[in-house]
Amino acid sequence: xxxxxxxxxxxxxxxxxxxxxxxxxxxxxxxxxxxxxxxxxxxxxxxxxxxxxxxxxxxxxxxxxxxxxxxxxxxxxxxxxxxxxxxxxxxxxxxxxxxxxxxxxxxxxxxxxxxxxxxxxxxxxxxxxx
Length: 130
Hints:
Strand order of the largest sheet: 1-5-4-3-2
Low-confidence stretches: none
Radius of gyration: 33 Å
Largest sheet: 5 strands, mixed
Mean pLDDT: 84
Helix content: 40-55%
Number of helices: 5
Strand content: 15-25%
Shape: elongated
């Protein structure tokens, strides 16, 4: 078993010249692998500072890729130093109170517009009849 690192220790290795990742509870120094990574170094650099296990598993790495991991493993992560995922709770917001004035105007227009159209039609009919 290798050395056990805290998350704070792993986070100090956060550059292209010194890049460490956490995957499935193990710590990997992937600095020498950055240029050879088939997905490009940006993929690995984007995973610095977090548990990259889900990202690693989502890609579906080959057994050859998994075998290569042993070469870059420098130890294990102290899981007590990784913050737990917190369930998202939306911020408290005041209850929305709708302005009734706009609703009243809409109802009034729903009544008056057809009435005006009817009045216009009667006026046109009256004027064109004579």
